[in-house]
Amino acid sequence: NCTLARRSLSGESYIFSPGDKNEAVPKALSSECVQVCLSASLTGDDVVTVNTPAFAESVTEGDVRWEKAVGDTVAEDEVVCEIETDKTSVQVPAPAAGVIEALLVPDGGKVEGGTPLFKLRKTGAAPAKAKPAAAPPPPAAPEPVAAAAPPPPAAPIPTTMPPVPPVSAQPIDSKPGETTAAFSSCQVKMNRMRQRIAQRLKEAQNTCAMLTTFNEIDMSNIREMRAVHKDPFLKKHNLKLGFMSAFVKASAFALQDQPVVNAVIDDTTKEIVYRDYVDISVAVATPRGLVVPVVRNVENMNFADIERAIYELGEKARKNELAIEDMDGGTFTISNGGVFGSLFGTPIINPPQSAILGMHAIVDRPVAVGGKIEVRPMMYVALTYDHRLIDGREAVTFLRKIKAAVEDPRVLLLDL
Fold first, then answer.
1. Known catalytic residues?
2. Which of 53, 84, 138, 273 is the 20 to 30 Å CA partner of 146?
């Protein structure tokens, strides 16, 4: 019989026994809750063995990175180690205050769900009595040093200098020096997330017949709409109104108009799978690498819903608190290189999806408007798509649909 302690990602802790009634278990607990099995009844003392939490179905193993060492004192819920999977990192806290007694997995070691991680002696438990150390042996007597032999007689100092050969007047042959400037380098092991990113991008390159089509968007109207409504929007929703929500909403609008862009090829059955929902992955750059949390059911969202979802997912990504469920799925991806100043680029498909939209920087450029040259805020956009499934006509039509919706948001309201 072991007590089960579950801690939800929100930070709340619950402790219950297998015999407790089901209604005592909070429904908010998800599969990402950390489960700890206390082995005190087995060991006869207050030593807790903490196991690896259960992973989602799409994750099989992870790498351990220790935050604490043997002998460190930890508080309840203090992070002891972090398990890095190919999608996110899972923090493992101490189930109670105590002292780390043993680390059962080396730093960087691979673990699966349920693997024992470390042992914790809870505060107040008496440590195991250590065997008395044996007295150190007395120092050995120094061995006698043999008498030094008398030094040989010094050589006589010459009274005359030896003859010096004459120096040739020929020019010295200049050769490059044998030593060159030292250049240092270091090798750093790729973390699991970077390895997974590299693997997926290479899979996309090897599997998809990727092709990219381009267009440009006049951002004048959407800029004006944002300038007029950003303060009332902030006051009502407590959210900043950005450009990403307009592109997410426009993408959902275009995906419903061109459902093949929202579809995917099932390579096992050789069938095309059409989805009647729109889940858009939004690429977010973090210090650990690129992550793509998913905004779900965008077709049913308004601008405020989208901005709130993007903000919450972005905060979780920056704090390294994304759960695996936050990144699973997704039918289409948007990548915004414009926040880093990118003017032009060709994004790579995020498999198993069939297309990705690349946004870029807004730059004032001269354009022809009604037979006149005007300076307008312009953005290049790129759509990379899997040509095995999507024809050029459908890709161009899709991108033009996004262009029309962003340049004139009334298109979204009128469903044109």
1. 387, 391
2. 138
Average pLDDT in the chain:
79
Chain segment 135-176, per-residue pLDDT in tens: 455 454 444 444 444 455 545 544 445 555 555 555 555 555
So what's the pLDDT on residue 231?
A: 94
3-state secondary structure the chain: CCCEEEECCCCCEEEECCCCCHHHCCCCCCCCCEEEECCHHHHCCCEEEEECCCCCCCCCCEEEEECCCCCCEECCCCEEEEEECCCCEEEEECCCCEEEEEECCCCCCEECCCCEEEEEEECCCCCCCCCCCCCCCCCCCCCCCCCCCCCCCCCCCCCCCCCCCCCCCCCCCCCCCCCCCCCCCCCCCCCHHHHHHHHHHHHHHHHCCEEEEEEEEECHHHHHHHHHHHHHHHHHHCCCCCCHHHHHHHHHHHHHHCHHHHCEEECCCCEEECCCCCCEEECEEECCEEECCEECCHHHCCHHHHHHHHHHHHHHHHCCCCCHHHCCCCCEEEEEHHHHCCCCCCCCCCCCCCEEEEECCEEEEEEEECCEEEEEEEEEEEEEEECCCCCHHHHHHHHHHHHHHHHCCHHHHHCC
Question: pTM of whole model > 0.70?
Answer: no
Tens digits of residue pLDDT in 359-390: 999 999 999 999 999 999 999 999 999 999 99
Write down all domains in the chain, each with its CATH number in brackets. Answer: 4-122 (2.40.50.100), 199-414 (3.30.559.10)
Structure tokens at 209: 């017949």
Q: Cα separation of 262 and 82, whole Å?
A: 35
Please name which of 96, 102, 36, 92 lies closest in space to residue 69, comparing C-alpha atoms: 102
pLDDT by residue (tens digit) across 316-325?
A: 888 878 887 8
Question: Long-range contacts made by residues 256-259, C-beta under 8 angstroms, separation at least 24?
Answer: 256/299, 257/397, 257/398, 257/401, 258/394, 258/397, 258/398, 258/401
